[in-house]
What we know:
The protein is globular. The protein has two domains: about 160 residues, Rossmann fold (3-Layer(aba) Sandwich), CATH 3.40.50; about 170 residues, Glycogen Phosphorylase B (Rossmann fold), CATH 3.40.50.2000. Helix 6 crosses helix 11. By secondary structure, the chain is α/β, with parallel strands linked by helices. The strands form two sheets. Strands 3-2-1-4-5-6-7 form a seven-stranded parallel sheet, sandwiched between helices. Strands 10-9-8-11-12-13 form a six-stranded parallel sheet, with helices on both faces. Strand 9, helix 7 and strand 10 form a beta-alpha-beta unit.
Amino acid sequence: MTPSGNSIVFRADGGQALGLGHIKRCEVLARCMQARGAQVVFLVQDDPFVTGYVAGAGFECRVLAPCADRAAMLDQTVADIRAMRPCAVVLDVIESGSWHVRAMQSAGCVVAGLDDLGEGAVELDAHFAVDDAVVRAPRSGRLFAGPRYVIIPEELKEHRPAAGAGDEPRPVLCVGFGGSDMRGLTLPAARALAAWDAVFEAHIVLGPCVADPGAVEDFCAYDSRFTVHRDPLDLFQLMAEASLAVCSVGQGMFELACLGVPTLVVSLSELHERMAGNFAAYGCSEHLGPHHAFSGDDLVARCRGILGDAARWRAMRQAALRTVDGGGARRICDLIWELTGNC
């Protein structure tokens, strides 16, 4: 297909190591834009894990030519966008470059970015971010940031509890550290919980890119309180059933909040450390600290403290439901659609 005047290209990063977080949230926006009549194309790296997922989701998928480094990949992105000439480009690439954003704009494209930490952020026509304290505003002044712009899948919102539902905590935990668990936190968390002398259920969720799922499964097999799930199709149901979750900074942290599940969050980088602290200020999560200082004793103490104090748990639950309302994708698409003149 040759992109037409109402086409939107989603240029998103992803891969076996990076996971699918960026791809999946762009998928939510893509479906939202399709509902408005836009033709959607994904432009991604040449990774079978990513291309298979995009194709399986029903979208046209174009692949970047192999590049020696990130600068070359941005150059190739510009070349492909100029050839495609879409109405708009949505960048979910972590760090864009100033020249690259301007080059796409000079080809007649509206360029929007998601959580862009690069120099190109100041050139964007619109910038959408989950935390305004860690990104730069574009010269256009169109920075839309905070939990109101968190992208939540439609199918997750079906599990969002009704007001007043589930007023008492249950000893059910959900433990998961994203698609790849790049810091190997699942096994230490399971070991810490196994040493906890309490009655509970723990759903241990392993993403599709976890390096050694067998090690986690082997350990958990000896404790009947654990159930291990590999890339489960009913992930959102498992999350919604939990009264407390343990996760890393990322999309899962926001999805759990939308479901009203208090979280204990581990940060994976200095940036994540700031984000975890900022999100904890809303009252729906607590920061366990950076991954390299992970403490099993602290994890157990926090679990005991939250699940054992119904008033504290209810306050965190209500704060979570207030903080992430699930309307972020619609807000972002409304603004992009307006900027494009409805293509």
